[in-house]
Amino acid sequence: MSTQSPEPVRFDTKIAVLLRADLEPWQRLNVTAFLVSGLGAQAPEVIGEPYEDADGVRYLPMFRQPVLVFEGTKETLTTAHGRALTRALPRAVFTSDLFGTGNDRDNRAAVRAVPTAELDLVGLSVYGPRNAVDKVLKGARMHP
């Protein structure tokens, strides 16, 4: 009896992170983690089922779909941010100021202190329909 593997799952949505290309490796990891951390709370449909290993040990659920990571220049981030705002897509930002803060209260205050057009973005996450997210990310390249 032959078993066929199921067709690959295609999602009609996309989770994407755009990082500024000049970040240090530790900054890329830190920014990515922060940027996607709120998505499950705001869009619970992106969370899959909990995991369990063969011994019955349970693990937290994770995103049901891949998180695609891109990079670009400061200008690419600024343009993508504007496109995400125009399309009213769920989004998160990480600014250079956040590298100097150490807690959530100070992080929020640092972003609140800067007008939208003057944010020094080092990272942006966005979630939504594939085609809308693709348009937001136009000009960015996949992270190496």
Characterization of this structure:
It is a single chain. The chain has 144 residues and is α+β, with helices and mostly antiparallel strands. 32% of the residues lie in helices and 24% in strands. The chain has 5 helices and 7 strands. The chain has a 5-stranded mixed beta sheet with strand order 5-6-1-4-7, sandwiched between helices. Strands 2-3 form a two-stranded antiparallel ribbon. The longest helix is centred in the first third of the chain and has 13 residues, at 25-37. The radius of gyration is 17 Å and the shape is globular. The model has no long low-confidence stretch (mean pLDDT 93).
What's this model, at a glance?
This protein is an alpha+beta fold.
Number of helices: 5
Structural class by sheet pairing and helices: alpha+beta
Q: How large, in whole angstroms, is the Cα Rg?
A: 17 Å
Q: What does the main sheet amount to?
A: 5 strands, mixed
- By DSSP, the count of extended strands is 7
In which order are the strands of the major sheet placed?
5-6-1-4-7
**Roughly what fraction of the amino acids lie in strands?**
15-25%
Poorly predicted sequence stretches spanning 5 or more consecutive residues: none
- What share of the residues lie within helices? 25-40%
Overall pLDDT score = 93
